[in-house]
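During the first year of the project, the team set up a workflow for recording each protein of interest as an amino acid sequence followed immediately by a discrete structure-token representation. This format lets reviewers and collaborators read both layers of information side by side without switching files. As required by the reporting guidelines, we include two representative entries from the current panel. The first entry is reproduced here exactly as it appears in our internal archive.
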Amino acid sequence: MTDNWAVIPVKGLTESKTRLSTHLQGDKRKVLVEALLDDVLSSIIRSRVYGTVLVISPDDNVSNRVRSQEVSFLKQTGVGLNRAIEQANRLANQKHARSLTTVLADIPLVEPGDFKELASIGHATRRVVMAPSFKGGTNVMLTSPPGVISPGYGRWSYSKHLRQAQINGLNTYSISNSRISFDIDTATDLMELRRLDPEGKTASARAAGMLKLVTSPLRSR
């Protein structure tokens, strides 16, 4: 079956978000990671853009968390984010997927319509569509066909992916979307999430409130 795939890599329920370890111990960090994943998966599923939604992780506990009719789990065999995406690309190509969209699991404000917009950009068979993070990363990236550029996640990955796509002569698009660009890495990000979602519409904001992650008031801008 030819369709569009989405893949969400997860390092692990207790191994993720280590930059928050000084603010959150393992169990509390696990609650936050689960909430972030729930928010991302909810928007992906409700968008109805993807025929296959795949979560890849080396952590079997993630499998127990996400298995459902809408989401499949793939056990990661390599080490690191780039190896995870390469593994997902190989599987997607084996199954004759039309495209693969990599979505990082820490963008709690993303909405279903954002995925619809991203999937609608460009009509060329060989193309790359990216949504950068505010910090220079690549929070969402569509590659058609899967793996048409190699994943280069890490510091300043957006510029690396953009350069690679242009060198390869691909139709390359970038979208500006503050919901996608906002990700959670630090305590400051959690403070900003509380400001952006004061009513707790996202599971992540509710988790932040429940765990009392924010202990100091925001400075006025």
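The second entry, processed by the same pipeline in the following quarter, appears below.
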Amino acid sequence: MNLFDLSGEVAAVIGATGVVGGALAQGLAAAGAKVAVLGRNADRGQARVKAIKGAGGTGAFFSADAGNRGSLQTAHRAVTDSLGAPTILVNAAGGNDPKVTVTAERAFNQISTEDWQANFDLNLVAGVLLPCQEFGAAMAERGRGSIINIASVSAHIPLSRVVAYSAAKAAVLSVTQFLAREWATKGVRVNSITPGFFPAEQNRRLLFNDDGSPTARAKSILGHTPMGRFGEADELLGAAIFLASHKASSFVTGADIRVDGGFLSQTI
């Protein structure tokens, strides 16, 4: 079947210098898309491009700060000149911040508005707003595109401690549905993926002790996950390729695909 063949597509993956974004970039390249690896860390970006090319794919790194409109504009022009006009946009920038995490040492009422705003800027402004304004609006003008935003299980049910992150990711779901409606007649589909718990740099300290053993929070997460394990970044690829492919998901917009091992299905 060729429903999932992305040959001829150009995918801009913002945040592809991270674990999840990098895996998505590599997966889209394996499916045939030409992939623009966008991020701030050139070393990690070039390493991801090397892996893409080593597997027979096409990719290039472009420096970009997702929270800076001018940086995105420059990157957009460079991607278009090098690979062609993007037809797929993956927004994988984002993350939690210890400064807005409720702990025994930091109560909810001690979170500063500046730190709260910074986390919203990371997850909502850089994570969705500016990239969609820059890349998504151009797709709408051309009449074709697929945008994939990265949500979180905490967007659906606010997790303990990560209050700002949960609120920002809930907003990501809302903006996703808003844009799905706005651009539905312009040939642009806008969907999201909700990952469960995938160990990465940003959450490794929350999940593992220095000796590699799971923390109490990790044990709680695993106990709440019917599959009883963490996810691996490659397990997000099927959902991403499905949403990226116009042939496979041409009537799918405003949807959220959960890849969470059943976490959001667990009650008592």
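For the second entry, the following points were noted during internal review. The two ends are 40 Å apart (CA to CA). Residues 113-142 form the longest helix (30 residues). Both points are flagged for discussion at the upcoming steering committee meeting.
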